[in-house]
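pinning this so it doesn't scroll away 📌
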Amino acid sequence: MNRNENDMLEKEEIFSKVLRAGRRTYFFDVRSTKADDYYITITESKKFTEEDGSYHFKKHKIYLYKEDFTAFSEILNEMTSYVLNNKGEEVISERHQKDFKKEYNLDTTESNQNSEKTFTDIDFDDI
């Protein structure tokens, strides 16, 4: 067995979950080491589309070993709680706010006849 085949066996997926989140996808995988112990990989895959319509993915991977599970989990829970307690669950971003205001203005100040014109004026770079 050559080294590449051996590396493939070492990284065999035991259990997997996928989280799709817009242009990002997160892969959570339990894998096995040569010593038949388990570890977790978390992979973020982000899709980038070129002007010609072609696309590619950029991937970032985190390896998480059993000896770090408790501390990692505690810090992740602390950080997510901090964000939610201080900013709530609503997503707030510059892009989100612009879109929200446009929808609000359409619903309250423009008639249905004008909303068709507004739709054609959308800049897709803002979406």
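📌 and the second one:
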Amino acid sequence: MTDKPTTRRDLMKPVQLLGLAFIAALFAGFVTLMSMGFFQTRPADQIQRALIVGLIAAGATFIVTLVSLALLLLAVDPSKVTATVDRPLLVPKNAPDADAPEAAAAPESPRADDGPTEPRA
């Protein structure tokens, strides 16, 4: 097989990243305009104020979404994207398998901090 290695650019192309941020910004701007009554019959100064606040909300959402997605993409190791996972993710690597017969037969030892609990007065 001559599969080329997965890169960060393959994970999320810049156009897709900008597109998602733009869609989130449009949604935030539209919700802000709706909540401020932009589409209702209102005085001109309230319409203008709603438009300005909607544009600010859209711009802030665009920037926050873009930065957040870019930082999340930095956390992904491109070489591990195509790797198969054959063990539980939250179990440490050196932990014995829970499916092993000796793990089921062995009694659990008490912890050092376990002891008789007495109610405090």
